[in-house]
């Protein structure tokens, strides 16, 4: 069990160029404190998601959340997770299913997944500013989520998010503790930023 009085583990990005502190400090921990998340903070993170940009202002995102105090709802979200995720995410005080609406008013497929990602990134950055940590998970059963949470046709559950205050890596299984402490890695800019043409690296963007 995590206590509520620990010094959060920091794993700031080793950025090759200056970036905002909220971006460099964000990472995906698996250790959560038992401290509940205040409702006002939850409102703020969803408010941040609300103000994301979206194609044609379609706002095709929805969130289904459960707090640990509502044990049945929390357990139902946990049930959708693959065992490797459920093992640590069960300690997270808040679990959130993210859902994208697939079609616009004319029944056309839109940029729904992109827009949902934009909203989630807003949520993640706002959470960081409030001292919270977030771990997103694709490892879950979307069909089970549809069934357990009555998600209608035309909407797809995309991820589950674990949210809470940071906990202690000491409380994790040794394998997860090792991952928790491992350095964060990224491809260099020249592998994915091109100037003028595909695969043409921007010379002054390199680390
Ligand atoms: C869409 C998405 C799905 C992810 N799925 C999982 C998952 O199922 N289990 C997990 O432990 N981490 C998952 N992650 C976390 C990533 O592994 C993590 O973001 C990545 O390794 C980079 O680490 P960082 O977030 O600490 O910088 C997911 C992240 C995203 C954005």
UniProtKB/TrEMBL annotation:
Keyword tags: Oxidoreductase
InterPro entries attached to this UniProt entry: Nitroreductase, Nitroreductase-like
Protein name from the UniProt record: Oxidoreductase
Gene3D superfamilies assigned: NADH Oxidase (3.40.109.10)
Species in which this protein is naturally found: Dictyobacter arantiisoli
GO MF, any single term: oxidoreductase activity
CDD domains: TdsD-like (cd02138)
Alphabetical list of SUPFAM superfamilies matching this protein: FMN-dependent nitroreductase-like
Keyword hit for Iron-sulfur: no
């Amino acid at each position: 069990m995590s206590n509520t009085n620990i010094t959060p583990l920091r794993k700031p990005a080793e950025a090759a160029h200056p970036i905002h502190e909220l971006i460099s400090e964000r990472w995906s921990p698996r250790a959560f404190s038992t401290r509940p998340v205040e409702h006002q903070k939850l409102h703020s993170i969803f408010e941040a998601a609300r103000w994301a940009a979206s194609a044609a202002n379609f706002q095709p995102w929805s969130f289904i959340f459960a707090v640990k105090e509502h044990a049945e709802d929390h357990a139902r979200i946990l049930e959708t997770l693959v065992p490797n995720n459920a093992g640590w995410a069960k300690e997270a005080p808040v679990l959130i299913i993210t859902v994208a609406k697939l079609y616009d008013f004319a029944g056309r497929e839109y940029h729904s997944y992109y827009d949902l990602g934009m909203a989630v990134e807003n949520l993640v950055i706002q959470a960081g500013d409030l001292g919270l940590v977030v771990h997103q998970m694709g490892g879950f059963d979307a069909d089970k989520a549809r069934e357990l949470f009555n998600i209608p046709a035309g909407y797809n559950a995309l991820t589950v998010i674990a949210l809470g205050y940071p906990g202690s890596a000491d409380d994790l299984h040794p394998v997860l503790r090792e991952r928790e402490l491992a350095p964060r890695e990224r491809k260099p800019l020249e592998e994915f930023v091109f100037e003028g043409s595909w695969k043409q690296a921007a010379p002054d963007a390199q680390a």
